User: Which sequence fits this backbone?
């Protein structure tokens, strides 16, 4: 079987898409289609790399949110390590040419399969690992039986490649992972360290419930909880272990909360810096995150960073203006006679997602009306006036006007609008590519097309 099973999910030619779209104005394009502002995404990526460098920690970029090679490259920058997390083998296979090229140039690269791997995927993972330097590919393990079956499959392969192993620690999210207090953890650590086919790398946690946070303090508390949890896990590593244990922590709210640590002061900041300093003396520490280059309304609702202030080294405000993804849709009909003005748009749950956002009662907020430069943007923390996606069906949605019937509430049939989605990862999933604009040049003119990976 071909290692690149991505061929089972053929992608359109990027060059053909570029000929079709590059240079076009958004107003002249069919809808719906997702649009990434490259300038915004690049600023968000650079801020993350800058804060990790300033803190003396590594960074591991998750690619599941966008599934593009172009944005993955922005996430790791032009130099230094190129460390990634993937949620599917398709994502890892898509990165393969870049990884081979980087390793040939002497750049450190690694890929972590970011959930406990299904056993049926192990043969494909081993074939992928053979294409790269030993130990480039790692897996997450949180169960002794899964580790033993992984070892059995590797032992059955002639000239099997070396695979890295991180143990997934549950620090409260309860999706995957083993708790630090589990009586199974010591045996799991010992088995991982004693394997002849795998190399024990360290411990990993994902503080996914940080999305429910509502303040900078919440995000900082989550980051501290992750570090404390992995610090406790290291007590099970025998002193005879020769390697340097890696501690990988993060989710976008907690990882980006690290930006506050360079800009703020106070008890939590002092506690974080003291804890991190002690950990770095003994361990390799890295942050990981995925949706931060694009952001979305869910992330803004966490208030994990201040919403304003100047962009500077290691810091970008957490506001709607720094959301890098919008979905271009079109008004198909208008209903001004209803109790509140409404409009039918050419996008529903398959284009925008169906996940709610705790900060407002809708499925997206209209960021701009391409026919109205003075468009009022709904402010969920202010006067709550503007257009939101109030209801969604599968392929269609209803824009609802919130606030008083005055100002620029009217929309016309054929008007194109850009919508900030609640969850960027899901909003992109229904599309085969992103149109790329650059607000430092022209926010409505297409400058590139990035093809998304498909399949698993």
Assistant:
């Amino acid at each position: 079987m071909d290692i690149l099973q991505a061929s089972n999910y053929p992608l359109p030619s990027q060059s053909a898409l570029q000929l079709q779209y590059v240079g076009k104005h958004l107003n002249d394009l069919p809808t719906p289609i997702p649009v990434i502002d490259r300038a915004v995404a690049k600023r968000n990526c650079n801020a993350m790399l800058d804060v990790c460098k300033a803190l003396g920690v590594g960074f591991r970029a998750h690619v599941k949110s966008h599934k593009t090679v172009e944005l993955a490259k922005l996430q790791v920058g032009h130099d230094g390590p190129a460390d990634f997390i993937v949620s599917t083998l398709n994502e890892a296979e898509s990165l393969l040419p870049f990884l081979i090229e980087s390793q040939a140039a002497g750049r450190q690269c690694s890929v972590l399969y970011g959930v406990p791997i299904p056993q049926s995927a192990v043969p494909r993972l081993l074939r992928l690992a053979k294409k790269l330097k030993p130990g480039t590919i790692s897996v997450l393990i949180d169960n002794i039986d899964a580790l033993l079956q992984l070892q059995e499959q590797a032992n059955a392969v002639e000239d099997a490649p070396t695979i890295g192993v991180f143990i997934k620690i549950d620090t409260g999210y309860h999706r995957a992972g083993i708790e630090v207090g589990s009586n199974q953890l010591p045996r799991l650590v010992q088995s991982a360290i004693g394997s002849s086919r795998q190399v024990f790398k360290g411990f990993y946690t994902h503080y996914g419930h940080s999305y429910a946070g509502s303040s900078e303090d919440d995000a900082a508390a989550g980051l501290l909880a992750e570090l404390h949890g992995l610090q406790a896990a290291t007590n099970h590593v025998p002193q005879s272990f020769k390697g340097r244990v890696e501690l990988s922590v993060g989710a976008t709210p907690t990882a980006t909360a690290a930006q506050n640590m360079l800009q703020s002061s106070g008890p939590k900041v002092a506690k974080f810096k003291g804890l991190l300093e002690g950990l770095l003396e003994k361990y390799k520490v890295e942050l990981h995150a995925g949706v931060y280059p694009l952001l979305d309304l869910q992330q803004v609702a966490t208030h994990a960073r201040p919403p304003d202030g100047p962009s500077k080294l290691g810091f970008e405000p957490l506001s709607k203006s720094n959301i890098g993804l919008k979905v271009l849709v079109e008004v198909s009909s208008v209903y001004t006679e209803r109790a509140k003005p409404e409009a039918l748009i050419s996008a529903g749950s398959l284009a925008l997602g169906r996940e709610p956002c705790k900060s407002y009662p809708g499925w997206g907020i209209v960021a701009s009306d391409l026919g109205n430069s003075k468009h009022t943007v709904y402010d969920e923390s202010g006067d709550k006036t503007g257009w939101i996606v109030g209801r969604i069906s599968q392929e269609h949605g209803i824009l609802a006007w919130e606030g008083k019937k005055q100002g620029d509430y009217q929309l016309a049939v054929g008007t194109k609008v850009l919508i900030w989605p609640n969850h960027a990862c899901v909003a992109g999933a229904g599309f085969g590519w992103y149109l790329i604009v650059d607000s430092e040049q022209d926010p409505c003119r297409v400058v590139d097309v990035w093809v998304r990976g498909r399949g698993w």
About this structure: The radius of gyration is 23 Å. The first strand starts at residue 33 and ends at 37. The chain has two domains: 38-301, 320-451.
